[in-house]
C-alpha cells in the first residue's frame, strides 16, 4: 500500500507531481465556487438594498454584477489555480491569451451595459416628452455605439495579445474597400438609417404612406424600417428605398388637421330658392360640429344629371380614425337635413324626348 501511495505521489505529469495537479484542480474549483456563491450572495444583498433606496445607482450596480459571466469567473479561477504548478511557456502563453480575451469580453459587456443604461435613461425622457424623433435617434445611436464599442475592445484585446494593429487596420482598409464594392446596397441602407436619424423624416409611431404602402412606423433598424398596416400585417421597406420614395407623414407633430372634400349632386327639378339655400345648409352642418373647420361650399357644375356642389372642411385632428368618424357624422347630418328640406339627391338618369310627327 505504501508502495502504491509513493508511486502515485511521485508520478510526474508535464513536469509536475500528480499531487500538485490535484491540489491545483481542487484550488481552482474552490475559488470558482467561492466566487460564484459570493456573486450570488452579493446580488441578493444588493437587490434588497436597492428596493429600499430611491436612487438608481445601486440598480445599475446590480445589473453590472448580474451580467458578470460564469465563464469569466471560471477562467479567472483557472489562472489563479495554475500559479501553484510549473507549466511550459507555451501553455502559460495560451492561458494568458485566453484570459485576456475573456477579460476584454467581460469588460466590453460591462461598457455596453453602461451605454445601454445611459441611452435608456435619455430614451425614457424623450418618451415622456412625446419626442418620438428623439427616441428614433437614440435607438440608432444605441446600435451604432454597441458596434463601435465591440470594435474598439477587439482591437485593444488583439493589441494586448501582440497582434500588429497597424498592419491589421491597413489590411482591413484594403479588404473593406472590396467588401464595400460588393455590399453597396447594405451600406446604402446603413447610411440611409443615419440620414433618417439626422434628418428625421419619420419617427416611431408616425402614420406614413410610402408609394402604395401605408401604416404606423413600428421600428427603424440599420437595414430596414418596419410598418404595421391598418389591417395588421407587417410591411418591411429598406431604408434606401424609403428615402428614395415619395413619403407622406401624417403624424401630429407634422399636421394639426386633415382636410376633407365631398361632392354632392341634387336634381335639376330643385326649386331655385331651395338651390340658393344649399350653401348655407352645408355651412351650418359643418359649423355645428365642434371638431370641424368650415372652408367652403360652392355650386361647381351643371352635371349631366345633377347640379353639383362641393363641400370642403377641415377635421381638427390628425388622427385617421377621427377623420373617418367625422366624415360619417357629416354625411348622416346632410342626409337628414336634405330629407327635412325636401332636397333630393341626384342619381344617373336620362330623359328621352319623343317628337310625334303630325
Write out the strand line-up for the largest beta sheet, numbering strands in chain order: 6-5-4-3-7
Helix content: 55-70%
Terminal CA distance reads 147 Å
Q: Which regions are unreliable across 5 or more consecutive residues at pLDDT < 50?
A: none
Q: For the report, how would you describe the main beta sheet?
A: 5 strands, antiparallel
Morphology: elongated
Helix-strand topology string:
HEEHHHHHHHEEEEHEEHEEH
Q: What gyration radius follows from the Cα positions, in whole Å?
A: 37 Å
**Helical segment count:** 11
- Total domains, how many? 3
Q: Quickly give the structural class.
A: alpha+beta
Mean pLDDT metric = 78
- The fraction of residues assigned to DSSP E strands is 15-25%
| Annotation, overall tally of beta strands | 10
Protein topology:
Elements: H1 2-9, E1 12-13, E2 16-17, H2 18-52, H3 57-66, H4 70-81, H5 89-128, H6 132-160, H7 165-182, H8 184-199, E3 207-210, E4 213-220, E5 224-228, E6 234-238, H9 239-244, E7 247-249, E8 258-266, H10 272-287, E9 292-302, E10 307-315, H11 320-340
Antiparallel strand pairs: 1-2, 3-4, 3-7, 4-5, 5-6, 8-10, 9-10
